[in-house]
């Protein structure tokens, strides 16, 4: 840390390569406001920003550990987040029928339909109970225990954190589809 209490680019990158938790937490806190501002100004919300940021940092940390040369961490984090967000927006435009991303969007839909009495949270809880045990445990580990993808990979005996991330995304797709089905049957 320099006298102002800030890390240099080189020390941040070296800390990430070494798996230094303090450095990774610092990076998380330091750059999150920039990403949240970008997402919220581009048709997103706080939940979108948080999900995007966590997934993007996993990519950034992995790339650094694999030896990718990065001069400016802030710029690299912003670029990864920006590309992932724009890709997600493109996907949402092409597949609007598959998107139930957050409570707010569904709550708006529920408010519009006077006959809907089951809130989205209850639909998600019901959908969670209908998932297979592995998916349920993986989602609980990620969202409630706040475990990293590396910790989840270890717990579930996956070879890589990317495998855990892929499984988590597939499980989330399943629970969203099930919740959407539950809401549609009301």
Protein architecture, described:
The chain has helices at 9-18, 21-40, 46-65, 73-94, 103-112, 120-130, 133-144, 149-155, 161-184. The chain is globular and about 55 Å long. It has two domains: 9-94, Rna Polymerase Sigma Factor, Chain: A; 98-184, Winged helix-like DNA-binding domain superfamily/Winged helix DNA-binding domain (Arc Repressor Mutant, subunit A). It has nine helices and no strands.
Biggest beta sheet summary = none
Are there runs of 5+ residues with pLDDT below 50, and where?
Answer: 99-118
Secondary-structure arrangement, i.e. CATH architecture of the largest domain: Orthogonal Bundle
Structural domain tally: 2
Helix residue percentage: over 70%
User: Given the helix and strand composition, which structural class is it?
Assistant: mainly alpha
CATH topology call of the largest domain: Arc Repressor Mutant, subunit A
Write down the secondary-structure element order.
HHHHHHHHH
Q: Gyration radius, to the nearest Å?
A: 19 Å
CATH class label of the largest domain: Mainly Alpha
Strand content: under 5%
Global morphology? globular
Alpha plus pi helix count? 9
End-to-end span in angstroms? 57 Å
State the total count of DSSP E strands. 0
CATH superfamily of the largest domain: Winged helix-like DNA-binding domain superfamily/Winged helix DNA-binding domain
Oligomer designation? single chain
Query: How confident is the prediction overall: mean pLDDT?
Result: 81
Key terms:
0% strand, Arc Repressor Mutant, subunit A, globular, mainly alpha, 186 residues, Rna Polymerase Sigma Factor, Chain: A
């Amino acid at each position: 840390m320099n006298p102002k209490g800030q890390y240099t680019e080189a020390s941040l990158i070296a800390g990430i390569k070494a798996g230094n938790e303090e450095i990774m937490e610092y990076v998380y806190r330091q750059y999150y406001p920039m990403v949240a501002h970008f997402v919220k100004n581009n048709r997103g919300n706080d939940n979108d920003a948080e999900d995007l940021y966590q997934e993007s940092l996993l990519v950034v940390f992995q790339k650094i550990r694999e030896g990718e040369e990065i001069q400016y961490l802030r710029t690299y984090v912003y670029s990864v987040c920006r590309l992932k967000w724009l890709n997600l927006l493109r996907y949402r435009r092409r597949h609007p029928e598959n998107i139930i991303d957050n409570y707010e969007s569904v709550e708006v839909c529920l408010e519009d339909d006077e006959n809907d009495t089951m809130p989205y949270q209850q639909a998600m809880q019901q959908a969670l109970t209908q998932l297979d045990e592995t998916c349920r445990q993986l989602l609980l580990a990620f969202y409630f225990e706040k475990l990293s993808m590396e910790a989840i990979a270890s717990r579930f005996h996956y070879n890589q954190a990317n495998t855990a991330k892929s499984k988590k995304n597939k499980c989330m797709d399943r629970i969203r589809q099930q919740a959407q089905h539950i809401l549609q049957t009301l």
